[in-house]
Write a structure and sequence with these properties.
15 helices, alpha+beta, seven-stranded antiparallel sheet, six-stranded antiparallel sheet
Length: 467
């Protein structure tokens, strides 16, 4: 998804930005960047590839080269950033958490006007440079950022570093969060509130959808009021978010407990214990375990000292190897047992199928899978989640094709009380080798999050959201 962190301080902000950015490492898999502004030397930037190493390892030795009281960092799931721009608005550095669906159309628009692009992203136009070009069409930063909101299809939250602090803007429908933190003599702005406590900040303000603010060390001023319509991504609580983070005041781990408890209340299967698939399935599993009064036990454990996150490598074969090698089954806890295990979601199902096979080989008696969200039936057009070359890569779509003979009548599989939905779930269970499978109902998930349904994006489950 990507995540960013910025700080403006009366003192040096180098350490705050370095450690604050590191606390967004769970959101990005490809690249990271830091940029600082020093009144004597101007902007200084570094960008590194993260596909084989972690953020701290890449940047720690370079901290001595930075200076300044304002700066930003980004962990990017996509393009190399931040980028530096010199414009009629003044010099600035820009980083985004974005997905631009209509980037090719926008490129044609600029190229037809004899504009050019310099930043390369896998042979394509860098989305963050596209955003910078759109901003520079305006006569002010506010006008330019509003222009971004009007022109792009997808989503875009951004931080813009100027010689006079940071301008922060949240996606026009609030699909991704932007939060301000405060401590004496400094302000921070971040995607994740988990980045605040250990850098000394307290959460001060959640930007609203489409809101634009100017942040300085002594506070912030609103440049554009928030809009009324919100569509924040529900997957922030289900999967993306770090357990201690909060969005719209709703704590991630607390929501996951409620998700697990909701599944437990609808479940009649008898089992010996509950297990969560590390990492994001664990909170859901604790909620299920506590509600059901079943013991929580780790039938497999995650080995993290040398194995990176399974989605970091770019080659599918390598991702599958990492996913297999880092999860070690515990045969002593597994053999002959009836196990309920929970995970956040099923996308393609490849890793869960391998988990199931490994637990079978470890001697598990019965395996009952419980998923903290509804079946994924629609690829996300707003963020970089469940992106597939074809909808048929989604496990739920594969099941429909096996039942129908072709990819059709998807809407008939949305109702969790329907016969077709039940057939789809049984087919997915069969595909993944599970004794039983249960997905969260969408109404239970909405209740667990605690926001009104109309404020949540639920597109990947029901196809309901639009640009």
């Amino acid at each position: 998804m990507s995540g960013f962190y910025g700080s403006v301080s009366e003192r040096s902000c180098i350490d705050d930005v370095f450690y604050g950015t590191d606390y967004h490492s769970h959101l990005g898999t490809k690249r990271a960047g830091l940029v600082f502004y020093d009144r004597e030397i101007g902007f200084r930037r570094r960008i590194h590839n993260l596909e084989n190493e972690y953020f701290r390892n890449k940047f720690e030795a370079e901290l001595k080269d930075f200076s300044g009281n304002s700066g930003m960092g980004v962990i990017s799931d996509t393009d190399p950033q931040p980028i530096l721009f010199n414009s009629h608005l003044g010099p600035f550095a820009l980083m985004t958490v974005s997905r631009i669906v209509n980037i090719n159309e926008l490129a044609d628009y600029f190229l037809a006007r004899k504009k050019h692009f310099t930043e390369n992203f896998m042979g394509n136009i860098n989305p963050t440079e596209m955003v910078a070009n759109i901003i520079c069409e305006g006569d002010s930063y506010v006008e330019g950022i509003t222009n971004v909101f009007d022109k792009i299809q997808g989503s875009c939250s951004l931080l813009l570093l100027t010689p006079d602090g940071i301008i922060a803007a949240r996606d026009k429908l609030g699909r991704t969060p932007v939060v301000i933190g405060r401590k004496e003599g400094a302000r921070a702005v971040a995607s994740e509130t988990c980045s605040f406590p250990n850098t000394g900040f307290e959460t001060e303000y959640y930007l609203g959808p489409g809101e634009i603010v100017h942040i300085r060390a002594n506070g912030f001023t609103r440049l554009k009021a928030p809009g009324k319509r919100m569509q924040i991504c529900s997957f922030l609580w289900v999967y993306y978010g770090f357990p201690t983070s909060e969005y719209e005041g709703r704590n991630v781990e607390e929501v996951r407990y409620r998700c697990g408890a909701a599944l437990a209340r609808r479940d009649s299967v008898k089992a010996d214990f509950v297990c969560g698939v590390p990492d994001s399935g664990i909170g859901h599993a604790f909620g299920y375990s506590n509600e059901k009064q079943l013991p929580y036990m780790s039938s497999f454990s995650k080995y993290t000292p040398t194995w990176p996150r399974s989605f970091m490598p770019q080659r599918q074969v390598q991702r599958e190897l990492v996913a297999k090698m880092k999860l070690i089954p515990n045969k002593k806890l597994t053999k002959g047992r009836k196990i309920i295990f929970l995970d956040d979601s099923i996308v393609r199902g490849t890793q869960l199928r391998d988990n199931t096979r490994d637990l079978r080989e470890a001697g598990a008696g019965e395996l009952h899978m419980r998923i903290a969200c509804p079946p994924l039936l629609y690829p996300c057009p707003f963020l970089n989640f469940s992106q597939s070359r074809s909808t048929l890569e989604l496990a739920a779509r594969k099941a429909i094709v096996r039942l129908e003979g072709e990819e059709k009548n998807v809407e008939e599989y949305l109702d969790p009380d329907s016969e077709k939905y039940e057939m789809m779930v049984k087919e997915i269970a069969s595909m993944l080798g599970m004794d039983s499978l249960m997905f969260q109902r969408l109404d239970d998930l909405v209740k667990a999050i605690g926001l009104p349904r109309e404020k949540l994006c639920t597109h990947c489950w029901d196809g309901s959201s639009s640009f």
